[in-house]
Amino acid sequence: MRGLKTILSKHPLFKGLDKRYLQLIVDCASDVHFNSGDLIFREGEEADQFYIIREGRVALEVVLVPGREPIIIQVIGEGDVLGWSWLFPPYRWHFDARAVAPTQAIALDGKFLRTKCEKDHHLGYELMKRFANIIEKRLRAMRLQNPDMYAIHA
Fold first, then answer.
1. DSSP 113-125
2. Most exposed residue of 56, 63, 107, 139, measured as fewest CB within 10 angstroms of its CB?
3. How many domains does the chain have?
4. pTM of the model as a whole
5. What is the CATH number of the domain that holds 55?
C-alpha cells in the first residue's frame, strides 16, 4: 500500500488532496493488469470503479451500428484516468474500454468512494471538481480527434 500511496499522491488527480481523503483513496486502490485485447468494461454495465493507467494503452470504443465493428473514439495511456461514470447516475458505462497493449493500472472502488462522498460533501465536491476537469479535457480531445464520428456511414 505504501507504493500506491506514493503513486496516487503524485498523480495530478489527487495531488494536493487532503491527507485523510488521500488515505481513503489508497484504502480502496489495487493494482490490476490487462492483457492486450482484454475488455475492461462494456457499455451499459454497472460503473463501480475507475482506473489510473500506469502503463499501456486503452481504447474507448462505441458501437454505432449493431453487428458492425466498434469505432475507437479515443486511446488513452500512461497517467490517464479511465472512467467517470461511477460518479453520475445511473452509474453505467457509456463506452466499452479495451486494452490495446498490455496495461498496468490502479483500480479504485468507485462505489466505496461514492458512499464516502455522500457522507462528506467536501470530499464529493473536491472529487467532482477534479473529475470535471478531466471530463472537459477528454471531451475536447475526443472532438478534435474524431470530427466525423457522428457522420452517417452507409
1. HHHHHHH-HHHHH
2. 139
3. 1
4. 0.87
5. 2.60.120.10
- Tell me, yes or no, whether 18 lies in a domain: no
In-domain check, residue 76: yes
The type of residue at 59 is: A
Q: What string of pLDDT tens digits covers the 154 residues of the chain? A: 568 999 999 999 999 999 999 999 999 999 999 999 999 999 999 999 999 999 999 999 988 888 888 888 889 999 999 999 999 999 999 999 999 999 999 999 999 999 999 999 999 999 999 999 888 887 776 666 555 555 555 5
Q: Tell me the HSE value of 80 on the side-chain side, using a 13 A CA sphere.
A: 19
Contact (CB, 8 A) for 4 and 71: no
- Would you tell me how many other CB atoms lie within 10 Å of the CB of residue 98? 22
Amino acid at 29: A
10 inside domain:
no
Q: Are strands 57-62 and 49-55 parallel, antiparallel or unpaired?
A: unpaired
Listed in sequence order, the residues at least 6 apart from 13 whose beta carbon sits closer than 8 Å to its beta carbon are 52, 81, 130, 131, 134
Number of helices (H) and strands (E) in the chain: give both, helices first: 4, 8
Q: Domain span at residue 40?
A: 31-145
CB 82 within 8 A of CB 67: no
Q: Is residue 13, in this structure, part of any structural domain at all?
A: no
